[in-house]
Amino acid sequence: MNKINYRISLLVALMGVSISVSAQKKQKPNPQKEAVIASVDNRFEELTDVSDRIWSFEEIAFQETQSAAALSDYAESLGFKVTRGVAGIPTAFVAEYGSGKPIIGILGEFDALPGLSQNTVPYKSPLHEGAPGHGCGHNLFGTASLGAAAAIKDLIEKGEIQGTVRFYGTPAEEKFFGKLWMVREGLFEDVDVVMDWHPAAETKTAVQKGLALVDFQVEFFGQAAHASADPWNGRSTGDALELYTTGINYYREHIKPTVRIHYHIQDAGKVVNVVPDYSRIWVRVRDSSREGLIPVWKRVEAMAEGAAIMANVEYKVSLISGVHEVLVNRTGSAALQKNLESLGPISYTEEEQDFAKKIQEATGKPQIGLVSKIDPMEETAEHSMGGSTDVGDVSWVVPTIRLSATTAPNGTPWHSWAVVASSGMSIGHKGMAYAAKALSMTMVDLFQNPELVENVKAEFKEKKGDYVYKGFVPDGPPPINSNLQD
Amino acid sequence: MNKINYRISLLVALMGVSISVSAQKKQKPNPQKEAVIASVDNRFEELTDVSDRIWSFEEIAFQETQSAAALSDYAESLGFKVTRGVAGIPTAFVAEYGSGKPIIGILGEFDALPGLSQNTVPYKSPLHEGAPGHGCGHNLFGTASLGAAAAIKDLIEKGEIQGTVRFYGTPAEEKFFGKLWMVREGLFEDVDVVMDWHPAAETKTAVQKGLALVDFQVEFFGQAAHASADPWNGRSTGDALELYTTGINYYREHIKPTVRIHYHIQDAGKVVNVVPDYSRIWVRVRDSSREGLIPVWKRVEAMAEGAAIMANVEYKVSLISGVHEVLVNRTGSAALQKNLESLGPISYTEEEQDFAKKIQEATGKPQIGLVSKIDPMEETAEHSMGGSTDVGDVSWVVPTIRLSATTAPNGTPWHSWAVVASSGMSIGHKGMAYAAKALSMTMVDLFQNPELVENVKAEFKEKKGDYVYKGFVPDGPPPINSNLQD
Amino acid sequence: MNKINYRISLLVALMGVSISVSAQKKQKPNPQKEAVIASVDNRFEELTDVSDRIWSFEEIAFQETQSAAALSDYAESLGFKVTRGVAGIPTAFVAEYGSGKPIIGILGEFDALPGLSQNTVPYKSPLHEGAPGHGCGHNLFGTASLGAAAAIKDLIEKGEIQGTVRFYGTPAEEKFFGKLWMVREGLFEDVDVVMDWHPAAETKTAVQKGLALVDFQVEFFGQAAHASADPWNGRSTGDALELYTTGINYYREHIKPTVRIHYHIQDAGKVVNVVPDYSRIWVRVRDSSREGLIPVWKRVEAMAEGAAIMANVEYKVSLISGVHEVLVNRTGSAALQKNLESLGPISYTEEEQDFAKKIQEATGKPQIGLVSKIDPMEETAEHSMGGSTDVGDVSWVVPTIRLSATTAPNGTPWHSWAVVASSGMSIGHKGMAYAAKALSMTMVDLFQNPELVENVKAEFKEKKGDYVYKGFVPDGPPPINSNLQD
Amino acid sequence: MNKINYRISLLVALMGVSISVSAQKKQKPNPQKEAVIASVDNRFEELTDVSDRIWSFEEIAFQETQSAAALSDYAESLGFKVTRGVAGIPTAFVAEYGSGKPIIGILGEFDALPGLSQNTVPYKSPLHEGAPGHGCGHNLFGTASLGAAAAIKDLIEKGEIQGTVRFYGTPAEEKFFGKLWMVREGLFEDVDVVMDWHPAAETKTAVQKGLALVDFQVEFFGQAAHASADPWNGRSTGDALELYTTGINYYREHIKPTVRIHYHIQDAGKVVNVVPDYSRIWVRVRDSSREGLIPVWKRVEAMAEGAAIMANVEYKVSLISGVHEVLVNRTGSAALQKNLESLGPISYTEEEQDFAKKIQEATGKPQIGLVSKIDPMEETAEHSMGGSTDVGDVSWVVPTIRLSATTAPNGTPWHSWAVVASSGMSIGHKGMAYAAKALSMTMVDLFQNPELVENVKAEFKEKKGDYVYKGFVPDGPPPINSNLQD
Question: What range does the record give for the signal peptide (chains A, B, C, D) (predicted)?
Answer without folding.
Answer: 1-23
